[in-house]
Amino acid sequence: MELSKRALAARDAIEPVTSFFLSLRARDGRPGVVDLTFGDPHEMPLPAFVDALRANLEPRAEDWFAYKSSQAPAQEAVAAGLRDELGLPFEPDDIAMTQGAFGAISVAFRLVADVGDEVVIPQPGWFYAPMLGAADLVAVRAPLDPDTFDLDVDAVARAITPRTRIVVVNSPANPTGRVYTRDRLAELAEALESASVRGGRRIWLLSDEPYRRIRFDGVDFTSPAACYPWTLIDYSYGKVLLAPGQRLGYLALSPLIPRTERAELRAAMLPLQMGMGWGFPDALMQYAAPALETVSIDVAELERRRDRMVGALGEAGYALTVPEGAFYLWGAAPGGDATAFVAALAERGVFVLPGTVFNSPGYFRISLTATTPMLERALPVLRALGPG
């Protein structure tokens, strides 16, 4: 059987992830295992989240569970939340409700890019490359600053070619936890505007913001939409609710996009989502969306876990990037080989994510969504295998 080129491209791009999954599955079921790999919950769901679902589960009309596109109450709640949070005049029609951030990113790639176009993505970064392969688009990696993992505007500018259509920015960033400053984003906006004029073709910015509300130490957040009009924002509620299995997110058009172009984008989103296989959240999740706008995990507790792990691992000799947001620790693997390091940890019952998943084989990632007792059980193993 001959697979499509897009299926092969997606398979090859995501191979490090699937290989790791298979190795992890082979060790499933061992008692006492400490799983620090993904941003999954390890405690019961937030009561307010469950209450919001329960309040909307009982049907109130015959069409309660009929086909649903983006629902007006959800769009209105999102637009109001964005106005308050980002200080920009979002309108409900700027919002397309999606199945999490993955769904929003998929819509964005197809909304403004054509087959063969290039999309500049950060390195290290998350699942963009396989999604681009599945959309017949070309991933071009732009490294973050190798010392600080800050956004490197010069690296982005060097990655731009006449085929570039989208640049992706992720802040707070996964896996590094960096939050990019307004000044740095303004530099990026200037570079994208210059490149767009020079190439005679608009370059769009996709701001990947699922961790926007998870920040530490009072760090400010600026969305690129405030600096560069030609910005699309994707968001997921799965992070702030710590419920990634219930898919709810959105794609938002910057209200600074000129109104004529914004009207064209608004009109295109509904048929595109339908054509992609009804890419809307389930009815129940959309009904719950207004109530979920104010629900959040305990960010202060995440910060305490961050401080505990950064302090303990720092004393053990690990080189870590102290996260300003999101819920991960990003560190250099002892000996420079993340695959060997992760395998050694797994043999001792501690699972962390290797940097190979992010095309960064010298690093590893720890999820802080594990409970405090889980992290404490992991520390002696991490100390024993540390660089000290």
TrEMBL record:
Keyword entries, A-Z: Aminotransferase, Transferase
Cofactor(s) needed: pyridoxal 5'-phosphate
Pfam entry (one): Aminotran_1_2
Keyword RNA-binding applies: no
EC numbers, comma separated: 2.6.1.-
PROSITE patterns the record matches: AA_TRANSFER_CLASS_1
Residue ranges occupied by any Aminotransferase class I/classII large domain in the UniProt entry: 33-379
GO molecular function: transaminase activity
Similarity-based family: Belongs to the class-I pyridoxal-phosphate-dependent aminotransferase family.
PANTHER family noted in UniProt: ASPARTATE AMINOTRANSFERASE YHDR-RELATED (PTHR42691)
Protein name in UniProt: Aminotransferase
Source organism of this protein record: Promicromonospora alba
